[in-house]
Amino acid sequence: MREFLIVYYSRSGKTAMAARMLAEMLGADIEEIREQRSFTGCVGWAKALICALKKEGARLVSTHSQAGDRTLILGMPVWAASVPPAVLEYLRTVQVSKPMYAFCTLDGSGSKGLFKKLRALAPNLSSNTLAIIKPAKDVERLRKTLLAWADAIRSSAGRGA
Ligand SMILES: Cc1cc2nc3c(=O)[nH]c(=O)nc-3n(C[C@H](O)[C@H](O)[C@H](O)COP(=O)(O)O)c2cc1C
């Protein structure tokens, strides 16, 4: 069994790109959270915003393993300065005993609100979180950012922090 499990949600592929890079760096298992509703394209964007603002629930069509002895790393986009409904639903299904890590991707602001919400739901969330603004704009910068975060996770997860 691998040391890390990365679970991510991504509407338009940016968080997915970062999650896959990080998985390669950490040699981690990786799972995608998928939900029943489709949010593709411009109409999907508007639909997603309404769902987020109305705090609608989500029905997942993906199945997930428990992290077990692995360290869980969650990745997601910021939606209306908070956590997307699919990730909220995922969090209802998992039990995490070890410190958990999280990163988000976003266009500008809202990561503070997202991590605050996440911490309320998962008190074992590590303070070592990562917010990546416009990850697809500069892939080399993204790689460097993720490499530094992967190193920090390896050392703090090793200390059980
Ligand atoms: C419904 C919705 C709400 C969003 N809200 C925010 C926001 O509050 N702040 C922000 O900076 N970006 C916001 N964004 C932009 C996304 O967080 C950003 O583009 C992200 O990198 C997309 O990741 P993805 O490609 O993995 O879905 C929002 C996007 C959507 C679809």
Characterise this structure.
- The longest helix has 20 residues, at 139-158.
- The protein has helices at 14-26, 41-53, 85-93, 111-121, 139-158, and strands spanning 4-8, 29-32, 71-77, 101-106, 130-133.
- It is α/β, with parallel strands linked by helices and 161 residues long.
- The protein has one domain: Rossmann fold (3-Layer(aba) Sandwich), CATH 3.40.50.
- The mean pLDDT is 95.
- Residues 10-16, 45, 48-49, 52, 77-81, 105-110 line the site of flavin mononucleotide.
Q: Keyphrases for this structure?
A:
single chain, 161 residues, alpha/beta, Rossmann fold, five-stranded parallel beta sheet, 5 strands, globular, binds flavin mononucleotide
Please compute the radius of gyration using only Cα atoms. Answer: 15 Å
**How would you classify the helix and strand content by structural class?**
alpha/beta
Q: Tell me the name of the CATH homologous superfamily.
A: Flavodoxin domain
CATH topology name: Rossmann fold
Across the major sheet, the strand order is: 2-1-3-4-5
Q: Give the terminus-to-terminus CA distance.
A: 21 Å
Bound molecules: flavin mononucleotide
Give the number of DSSP strands: 5
Low-confidence stretches: none
Specify the number of helices.
5
Biggest sheet, open or closed, and with what strands and sense? 5 strands, parallel
Q: Bin the helical content.
A: 40-55%
Mean pLDDT: 95
Order of helices and strands: EHEHEHEHEH
SS strand fraction: 15-25%
